Amino acid sequence: MGKKREGMQRLLVIINKLKGPQQYVPRKELENYVTHRMEERDGTPVDIRTLQRDFKDIEDLFGIRICFDKKQNGYYINEEDDLKKEQYERLLLNFDLLNALDKTSNLHTYVLAEHHRPNDSECLPALIKAIKFFHPVEFSYIYVREGDKVRKKKVLPYYLKEDQQRWYLLAYDNNILKTFNIDCIRNLKILYEETFKRNMNIDANNLFKDSYGIWNQTDIPVENIELSYSALDGSFLKSIPLHHSQEIITDNEMEFRIRLRLRITNDFVMALLSRSSSLTVIEPLHLRERIRKIYEEAIKRHL
Fold first, then answer.
1. CA distance 61 to 302
2. N or C terminus of the chain with fewer C-beta within 10 Å?
3. d(CA 161, CA 153)
4. 208 close to 216: Cβ distance less than 8 angstroms
5. What does R_g of the chain's alpha carbons equal in angstroms?
6. What is the C-alpha separation between 171 and 149, in angstroms, rounded?
7. Segment holding 50, helix H or strand E
8. How far is it, in rounded angstroms, from Cα 43 to Cα 213?
9. Mean pLDDT over all residues of the chain?
10. Residues 84, 62: contact at Cβ < 8 Å?
11. Is 245 helix (H, G, I), strand (E, B) or coil?
12. Range of the domain at 270
């Protein structure tokens, strides 16, 4: 296990302990916890000097400040940083999984990881740092749909978003908010000598309200969609809705029918096809026709 990977794992273990139900964690308890967790991952024991360095790295990378309360004799995450803590909670969880389940760790003997795991973990800490300290970034970007053409980009990073086990960077490119697949980013460089003023009035929660997944194509209208499925497929769609706008119209032994309101993007159409064995598109008619043509082309290819 490389020192860089081990160091990142240790940061995540510390945060995992301090964001738990215990408000104050004594020094010795934190040392023992981190040492035990790192031994599970073939890591080395830690001491107070290592922890102090890690606290600084955690603040630099994630914006999370770890303090010590003398009266309570314990470490804690500063309450004023709770918003940042929640903002990065899912990100930290994914880091923990990605870094823990490597071939050198004995965890793989009882945890079954996906065959394909994202390759972007080294890119994410640098992007978090650039976002936190308002630094532009430069990188080479691979446009897969253009035959892997590579273009140089200089952007203002704003958000990181996860979708279907992939990470995406939301950044302003020539005053337009665009989405970049982190898998396609190469030669990332933080421009430390430059800073930008972040627009704090952006409602991040509404950016993708009307879209499926990561692609919010505003040139595509928001439409009412009605879909019919079998009762069996309906049981899955009740537990994992297609979209937050999903509204159940019919739910019985014969049919499960839902209504949605969102943009009909390629990603959404692909999602419909993934459970198409019982799908009937009721409306809009142009979506029904689009699905029909996809089926027809598939039949031609298999004749």
1. 51
2. C
3. 19
4. yes
5. 23
6. 20
7. helix 48-62
8. 37
9. 82
10. yes
11. coil
12. 222-301
Cα separations (Å) of 281 from 68, 168, 260, 287? 59, 30, 12, 7
ω into 284 cis (within 30 of 0): yes
Tell me, yes or no, whether 107 lies in a domain.
Answer: no
* Chain CA centroid to CA 261, Å: 23
Contact 237, 229 (CB under 8 A): yes
The CATH number covering residue 44 comes to 1.10.10
Report which of 290, 281, 287, 277 is spatially closest to residue 257, judged by C-alpha positions: 281
Letter for the amino acid at 44? T
- What was the pLDDT predicted at 88? 55
183 plus 251 within the same structural domain: no
Chain length of the chain = 303
pLDDT tens track for 153-183: 999 999 888 777 678 899 999 998 888 998 8
The first and second tokens of residue 23, run together, are 């408000």
Q: How far is residue 61's CA from residue 84's CA, in Å, rounded to a whole number?
A: 12
Which candidate, 258, 264, 300, 271, places its Cα nearest to that of 285?
264
Q: Which stretches within 63-189 are classed as H helix?
A: 82-87, 89-100, 123-132
Distance, in Å, from the CA atom of 233 to the CA atom of 251, rounded to the nearest integer, reads 11
Q: Model-level pTM?
A: 0.59
- Spatial distance between the Cα atoms of 22 and 164, rounded to a whole number of angstroms: 32
How far CA 22 is from CA of 64, 75, 91, in Å, comes to 17, 10, 21
Does residue 164 lie within any of the structural domains? yes
Q: How far apart are the first and last CA of the chain?
A: 51
Q: Is residue 69 part of a domain?
A: yes
Angstrom distances, CA of residue 192 to CA of 129, 159, 196: 10, 18, 11
Instruction: Pick the more confident residue, 21 or 136.
Output: 136
| CA atoms of 136 and 1, how far apart (whole Å) | 31
Strands 185-190 and 247-251: unpaired
What is the residue whose two structure tokens read 């470490």? Answer: 75
